[in-house]
From TrEMBL:
GO terms for molecular function: asparaginyl-tRNA synthase (glutamine-hydrolyzing) activity; ATP binding; glutaminyl-tRNA synthase (glutamine-hydrolyzing) activity. InterPro entries: Asp/Glu-ADT_sf_sub_c, GatC. The keyword Nucleotide-binding applies. Belongs to the GatC family. The keyword Translocase does not apply. It is an enzyme of class 6 (ligase). It holds the Pfam family GatC. PANTHER family: GLUTAMYL-TRNA(GLN) AMIDOTRANSFERASE SUBUNIT C, MITOCHONDRIAL. One of its GO terms (biological process) is translation. This is Aspartyl/glutamyl-tRNA(Asn/Gln) amidotransferase subunit C.
Length: 102
């Protein structure tokens, strides 16, 4: 695979997309630095990975899950939940609209 050459035009485009203003000096500097980074990363293409098993992580850590349990001791009744509401309707909170219709 051929490595893309990083040009000032490429850096200008990325900076514009990221909304990062760059001076001409910064643009030149970034062109050089990004070019070195891309060259370094492109070396990975030459590594022999044919017999390497794919993995998403190597630490062996796993998420710990628990079953959801309903704790009725800590539950509010509907009346308790709505007790301090400014406005309610048919057992629900009433709030002002958050979207403008245009």
């Amino acid at each position: 695979m051929k490595t893309a050459k990083i040009t000032p035009v490429t850096v200008q485009k990325v900076a514009r997309l990221a909304r990062v203003p760059l001076t001409k000096t910064q643009e030149k500097d970034m062109t050089k630095k990004i070019g070195v980074t891309v060259q370094y990363i492109s070396q990975l293409e030459s590594l022999p990975t044919k017999d390497v098993t794919e993995t998403s992580q190597v630490a062996g850590l796993e998420n710990v899950y628990r079953e959801d349990e309903i704790d009725t001791e800590r539950m509010f009744t509907q009346e308790q939940a709505l007790a301090n509401a400014k406005r309610t309707h048919n057992g629900f909170f009433v709030v002002d609209a958050v979207f403008d219709e245009k």
